[in-house]
Amino acid sequence: QQPVQSPQAVILREGEDAVINCSSSKALYSVHWYRQKHGEAPVFLMILLKGGEQKGHEKISASFNEKKQQSSLYLTASQLSYSGTYFCGTERGQTSGSRLTFGEGTQLTVNP
Amino acid sequence: EAGVVQSPRYKIIEKKQPVAFWCNPISGHNTLYWYRQNLGQGPELLIRYENEEAVDDSQLPKDRFSAERLKGVDSTLKIQPAELGDSAVYLCASSLFGVSYEQYFGPGTRLTVT
Predict the structure, then answer these.
(1) d(Cα A57, Cα B93) in Å, to the nearest integer?
(2) Phi, psi (5° rounding) for residue A79?
(3) A19: Cβ contacts below 8 Å, ≥ 6 apart
(4) Which pLDDT does position B1 carry in this prediction?
(5) pLDDT tens profile A69-89
(6) Phi, psi of B71 (to 5 degrees)
(7) Which of A112, B3, B20, B110 has fewest C-beta within 10 Å?
(8) What is the distance between the alpha carbons of residues A44 and A51, in angstroms, rounded to a whole number?
């Protein structure tokens, strides 16, 4: 079952913050975040395993609320290079091994 | 370190023709994935290999799609015969171990069926 991402699209000015959400109706083992620029391959950002951890990667961080089966990606002080489509991928179940199912993506545009 | 290599990058064929895509994963990665990505959508898994074994092919349309991963390295995805609805980007990815590890994607093959 495909995770639901929100918002579908967001437009920012350089330096502004954004939050992208990913939710599932099923128990999740892990949540993956990828960014894809137009015409390019998806690029890995981070993985969060069940346990409610939070991770950071420069000015991009993410959290995973295991009880709510939700993950959020936080982009702070956005840069022009952050523009692209962000996909969450969810791995269902209690243990590793099921397939990664991607959401429909959130299109982020950062303007000068 | 070289990334995931795919060829061809673009392919235009007429419907009912066969087509094949090739993927060379990152050296040492034992898990290989084929995804299909339609315009404006996220990637959708077609098949996952762990070494030479196809461990998840439940979403592969087996009447027309086939895949192989000989010697647990390179992989080929074939469509025969192609249909108009097969037009999409076919992405290959690899990861060091299983699904819970980061996946590295190749540039993809953009297939257009006319």
Answers:
(1) 22
(2) -115, 160
(3) A72, A73, A74, A75
(4) 66
(5) 999 999 999 999 999 999 999
(6) 60, 15
(7) A112
(8) 20
Return the structure tokens found at B11: 């392919």
Tell how strand A18-23 and strand A70-75 pair up.
Answer: antiparallel
C-alpha–C-alpha distance, residues B109 and B107, integer Å: 7
Write the CA distances from A64 to A14, B45, B106, integer angstroms: 26, 23, 27
| Distance from chain centroid for Cα B46 | 7
A4-30 pLDDT, tens digit each: 999 999 999 999 999 999 999 988 889
* Shortest alpha-carbon distance between residue B99 and chain A (Å): 6
Residues of A in contact with B40 (CB under 8 A): 104-105
A99 in contact with B, Cβ within 8 Å: yes
The residues, any chain, with a CB within 8 Å of residue A55's CB and separated by 6 or more, are A46, A47, A48, A61, A62
What is the spatial distance between Cα A63 and Cα A19, in angstroms, rounded to a whole number? Answer: 11
